[in-house]
Low-specificity L-threonine aldolase
Amino acid sequence: MKSIDLRSDTVTMPTDEMRRAMANALVGDDVYGDDPTVNKLEKIAAEKVGKEAALFVPSGTFGNQLSLLTHTRRGQEVIIGKENHIVVHEVGASAVIAGVQLRTLNTTNGTMSPEDVEKAIRKDDIHQPETGLICIENAHGCGAVIKIDNLKEIKKIAEKYSLPVHMDGARIFNAAISLGVDARDIAKYCDTVMFCLSKGLAAPIGSMVAGNKKFIDKARKNRKLMGGGMRQAGIIAAAGIIALEKMTLRLEEDHKNAKYFASELSKIPGINVRFDKNDINMIFFEMKDNIIPEKTFINKLYEKNIKINKAEDGEYRFVTHAGITKEDIGFVINSIKELAHLTGNLY
């Protein structure tokens, strides 16, 4: 029986075309700048987000932390939404690697208020750390996208105080589809952007950091410092090229599947779907009155080869990706209905 993995789009498998490209990739030593496939990937990546240059890095977390390290000095402070990936899911790396403090702000589904951002910028006070960077995330890990007007306002504030803006754009191409714009129209409101080649784009390894040439030159040296200098990396970069050139074109299918999934889930009594967090390929929902106990829910679905994560802050998250079809969604929906009947809590 097929395994249906809804835990994340990070579980997406590389395509057959990617595997062939990886096997036949032209390679060289990337630390010397000699890998033609990596060089090609970096050029394509920079063009995709409208930046001067780009750098291939092992992961999204690596790319975010490399950006913080390159933008800031030790002891500075970074303004960031409190639910952002850098805060919640990167193991406190900003304190260890860049040596910076995070000043976290309340958000509405990942969106920071420009007024709050401006108020959080530190004044010239002997007792306070210096603000060194503003970080935003789009699309946000909560499943929502940040509107262009908000990005524009925050960038305007950053320029007023001569501060750089870094975007965690792990799913920037999902955000672009949801907003009906090009990824360049989002990235223009940040100085640097990190985006993943894995997740919905299906490459097995790697992310990109893009910005101006001066920043990327500095980041390249910091990548070496962090242990991210790779040698014949063209083998994995080959999959990244296909991810950017082809897999970005199919993401809308994942969005449509996620909206269908959310609609069908919402028809099950006792399940409350968060449609305000259904902008991309994610479905968030909670079960009212615990209609199916969490342990039962996870284990019984697993017995049907359906993999899900445990609830976080009372909400479950399902993620659609290239490995999930509409038929798979129907099977999951029917399985949940069956479980609710078995526990006697559906009707």
In short: The longest helix spans residues 326-342.
